[in-house]
Write a structure and sequence with these properties.
Distance between the termini: 46 Å
Mean pLDDT: 89
Oligomer: single chain
Structural class: mainly alpha
Order of helices and strands: HHEEHHHHHHHHHHHHH
Shape: globular
Length: 318
């Protein structure tokens, strides 16, 4: 009897839970409907393409499919790893991303702290609005602006050089300037937008901590050092972990549009190399192997960065 009563009570509780869940879903049905396009996007463009990752192990022919293509095992991985060009492209990718990690990545943090110290709310809003608007400039427009500024004939820099009595330089044709152009343009485009995250984190810091620091005689610099920076450091660390996972990637469309035959030795990155293999040379298997290798390295970097962060700072993604 007790067992039957317990089973009946369990069934009733399960029915109540299901009814509550169904009622909650119905009350929030419009919110769930808004999620459907995101789920469709993720399924079609993120998860479904994973099926074709096995092309890395085939001499894949687009019209024949997997059934008509020859299985080659790790042939493409061996060819990639034995290619001296691959290591040059990896070196180019890491050089650009490490420079970006050292210069562009921390800049929004500094900008957010400085902006937080501005006492005029009106001036702060104007600066913040002006700073994050470049984020909405499309990459094609940005590259056009860079080409116009760096042009040796009509560019602003060329006019300044001529005014100073110097010979204009074709900046995009000199490999030594390629990384600098990318860093400066990336800094201009992302500093304001990326600072929004840190500004939100600063807004979440308990104001009583600032009051306590002022009562202890801390000036504004010490308040930044002992209250603001520790308060936003967890956010900074999480973003740093994710950024480390992007060390083998790049802003593909920007790099692709800025490339030319004169700067190719430094502008050819791993993603652009994979694109040339697949879309230009139609070596789909080798291109898929390159992309898969890139993904494995990126995941490994995230795991290592997350492990180190958890051990050192007790802040981690998982």
């Amino acid at each position: 009897m007790n067992t039957a009563a317990t089973r009946k009570e369990s069934v009733l509780n399960s029915a109540r839970v299901r009814r509550r869940v169904c009622n909650r879903i119905w009350r929030n049905r419009y919110i769930y409907l808004m999620v459907i396009p995101v789920l469709i996007y993720m399924l079609l463009l993120k998860y479904l393409p994973m099926y074709y990752l096995r092309a890395a192990f085939y001499d894949y022919k687009l019209l024949k499919g997997f059934e008509g293509s020859k299985y080659v095992g790790f042939k493409w991985f061996e060819r990639l790893l034995s290619s001296p060009d691959l290591w040059q492209y990896i070196r180019n990718t890491l050089t650009l991303n490490l420079l970006s990690l050292a210069i562009v990545f921390p800049a929004p943090l500094v900008f957010a702290i400085l902006l937080n110290e501005v006492r005029s709310n009106g001036y702060k809003k104007v600066v913040q609005t002006v700073s994050y608007m470049p984020h909405f400039v499309s990459t094609v427009v940005l590259v056009s602006m860079i080409n116009n500024i760096c042009s040796p004939s009509i560019g602003v820099l060329a006019k300044i050089w001529k005014f100073m009595g110097l010979t204009p330089v074709n900046w995009l044709a000199v490999p030594d300037y390629f990384y600098g152009i990318n860093i400066v343009s990336g800094l201009w485009q992302c500093i304001g937008w990326n600072a929004v995250i840190y500004i939100s984190a600063i807004a979440g810091i308990d104001q009583s901590l600032y009051e306590a620091a002022r009562m202890d005689g801390a000036n504004r610099w010490k308040q930044i050092l002992h209250v603001t920076i520790p308060g936003i450091m967890p956010t900074f660390i999480l973003l740093l972990i994710m950024q480390i996972g992007q060390l083998m990637n790049c802003v593909f469309d920007k790099i692709w549009l800025l490339q030319n035959t004169l700067n190719m030795q430094v502008s050819e990155m791993l993603p652009t190399y994979v694109y040339r293999l697949g879309m230009v040379s139609q070596k789909y298997g080798q291109a898929t192997a390159g992309g898969l290798l890139n993904s494995v390295i990126s995941v490994t970097l995230v795991l290592i960065a997350n492990f180190v962060s958890r051990k050192v700072s007790e802040t981690s993604l998982f």
